[in-house]
Design brief:
homodimer; 295 residues; 60s Ribosomal Protein L30, Chain: A; Phosphoribosyl-aminoimidazole Synthetase, Chain A, domain 2; 2 domains; 7-stranded mixed sheet; 12 strands; 30% helix
């Protein structure tokens, strides 16, 4: 079975260079020189019924909101300003007009919170389950995009908020860190950034791989969300495990040469290309245990 | 059951006006002032297994190509130059890396034929069937976008090629009329345009509704594709019925004040807001019999 990241590597290897695309694929969004002296950022993200939400449980407005917010979180990771979005929706056959409207209103609400507008779309219905795909356009607007590559040995490693247990509900209701992304992009010391969708351990691996570095995470410094504590009560796993490996936190993970204006330090970038976790003074390998999309 | 066009009407009614979006929703693509003195066009289109293709029958490269070509056909309809695309793919669980690569290569081939590049994407897998969603970015590049609205009584009605019977295979292998769209946009006499995806009778209804006009189609002038003749042999319907109502021709339907450089005249725009078909000198109502996406 193929894994998503094999495919991404393969696509990257085939991407033609051009005056239009100054940054090769592999970041949270594509970066285009459009017009030549400015940057246009484009991201696309789909949510699938039973994978990213459950249409039997979640209200359509919440589903629409999540579909948009995942894209806004990509904007946050690239420190860009979301401007416009288009959406494609594959509805379950027999869905009502009201249901489709609720999906749209959820997207519109989420976009409007950051001044972006839904400018177009495509709807269809089929025998399958609900699929929503949102494409977002962002402007760099005087803040250079922050990429996954750029972290250097000695940089501090930071997160914008507490992690773990988002499955208890936060994965549907999170607020994308667009404002935080802009602050971090503007401050001048942030060297690399990614949003936490696959889980801290796995997204850290992506960032370190792109930057050709390693990292040491200090377990005691990782901010553990109350939801992770609650989940640990239910399933017996330690709360820190949830904070390290659960997906869909949608906080920003970033590296910085000096103390950034926001964020909690959780570790340090190293020259050795391995991920380590330090617990009570002892370092052991940090396995990427988050969510990898299996093809 | 809701119909797609009810939803589009409703979305249009909610769309905020802005300096960014000079043209309200409802055309084949959204038009943005980006940068303010130029136009950026954005379109999105999804293809669904068992609706737009059949993964049990069609090769992944052909499916990828169709997903891209439908978007390029939207560019053709707006007379813009396709530049860049992003794609989201929901794969059937257990799909191989090779299968995903073939989908991508099909998209890349189709885009490259018109100088456009695939700059980013999102892949995931689920228990459902294959979904591919492509978002295309186009530039007006010194040709004003041609919209659905703009047709005036007395304008001639034209198509770029023969119609009907595309289900025999052309719906997978068509060449989008990007070059023709540019020629027509540039010539100065074309007043409205749409690509034929839902069928001549239905897409003509969209164009006339947007332009607040009607039309008289001369049945004898409609170019009937050999596939429509073949299909009529098989199903007993007349070939002209296939030409009038079958979907997925992906030719351009347009109106022009004077003889355009390309295209075959098939009728005339009228002030009366009805669609009529003239057969042997007799005019009868032309029912929109094409494919309406049922929600």
């Amino acid at each position: 079975m193929a894994r998503e990241f094999d495919l991404v590597d393969w696509i990257r290897s085939r991407q033609p260079c051009s005056a239009l695309v100054p940054v090769p694929a592999g970041d949270d969004m594509a970066v285009l020189k459009w017009p030549p002296e400015q940057l246009l950022l484009v991201g696309v993200d789909q949510v699938l019924d039973t994978v990213h939400f459950d249409s039997a449980v979640h209200a359509p407005r919440d589903i629409g909101r999540k579909a948009m917010n995942r894209n806004l979180s990509d904007c946050a990771a690239m420190a860009c300003l979301p401007v416009a979005a288009v959406a494609a929706v594959a509805l379950k056959q027999g869905s009502s007009l009201e249901y489709a409207q609720e999906l749209y209103l959820g997207m519109q609400d989420a976009a409007a919170a950051f001044g972006a507008v839904v400018v177009g779309g495509d709807t269809g219905s089929w025998r399958g389950n609900l699929v929503m795909t949102v494409t977002i356009l962002g402007r760099s607007a005087e803040v250079q995009p922050v990429r996954r590559r750029g972290a250097r040995p000695g940089d501090g490693l930071y997160v914008t908020g507490a992690l773990g247990g988002s499955l208890l509900g936060r994965h549907m209701t999170f607020v994308p860190r667009v404002a935080e992304g802009r602050v971090l992009g503007r401050c001048g010391s942030v060297t690399a950034m990614i949003d936490l969708s696959d889980g801290l351990s796995r997204d850290l691996l992506h960032l370190c791989k792109a930057s050709e570095v390693g990292a040491v995470v200090d377990a005691a410094s990782v901010p553990v969300h109350p939801d992770a504590v609650e989940l640990s009560r239910r399933d017996g796993k330690r709360a820190i495990e949830h904070a390290l490996h659960d997906g869909e936190d949608y906080e920003l993970l970033f590296t910085s040469r000096s103390a950034p204006p926001i964020g909690k330090r959780i570790g340090t970038i190293s020259a050795e290309r391995s991920l380590l976790i330090e617990i009570d003074g002892r370092q052991t390998p940090l396995e990427a245990g988050g969510w990898e999309h299996e093809l």
